[in-house]
Amino acid sequence: MSLKGIFKKFTHRDEEDNETQKNGVMLVTFAEPKHVVAEQFRKVRTNIEFAGAALDRCEVVMFTSSSMSEGKSTVSANVAVTWAQAGEKVLLIDADLRRPTFHATFRTLNLEGVTTVLTGKTKPSDVVEKTFVDNLDIITSGPVPPNPSELLNSKRMANLLEWGRANYDIIVLDTPPVLAVSDVQVLVPKTDGVVVVTNMGKTLKGDLKRTVEVLKLAKAKILGSVERVRATKADRGYGYGYGYGYQSNDGR
After folding, report:
1. Which range, of 60-74, 179-193, 212-226, 236-250, averages the lowest pLDDT?
2. pLDDT level of residue 13 (50, 70, 90 thresholds)
3. Rounded Cα–Cα distance for residues 97 and 107 (Å)
């Protein structure tokens, strides 16, 4: 690829990421629950449940990716909605303390959230918010801190998730990309399983391989991968489709 092509690729990625930060992600599962893409998200949820059935418990599920703008926030938010629509009591936590999006998605302020809990200024019950989706509550990221990894690796983060386990059926974590920062690795011991989101045509095979290796070194239980694919005719208006693939912990 030429330097011009590389520049164009990363400029497009930055534009897409900035748009998500500004306006949030599209909740097709809420806006059009009968749409083909919404059905694909329900299939993703079901497959995660099947993969999690082999674990001692599967209450805290983390969504991540290799790099930015691969669709992890869209997947985590929409899968959380499908769990709520299925009658589960769901808590969606924006644990991407560097580039948060859920305050924009759910049209709420981000003055308090994960960071104010982790710095001891608030309690989880003070910052949890109900959403326009029945059975779905959120905790936004809160103000962007200078030391995200240290905060996520703290005892208070473990306490936040234990509070979530005691009050909800499912906790969904949206986290930063694995290869960008160390935030995901410090969160792995506090979660039950990890789902890796990839973007066909954008995610490099080498990056995906390194992502899986990093997660395995952290002893993550990889529940599977979700592939964001090019839009089909049926997906028009949303610009993506999703498929689910399983990746076992031994790499097979």
Report:
1. 236-250
2. very low
3. 18
- 39's tokens: 């059905």
Rounded to two decimals, the pTM is 0.85
CB 214 within 8 A of CB 13: no
- CA triple 55-57-61, angle to 5 deg: 95
Strand order in the sheet with 60-65: 129-130, 136-139, 90-94, 170-174, 60-65, 193-199, 222-229, 241-245
For residues 195 and 203, what is the distance between their CA atoms, to the nearest angstrom? 15
Question: Could you report the per-residue pLDDT of 167-203, keeping only the tens digit for each?
Answer: 999 999 999 999 988 999 999 999 999 999 998 878 8
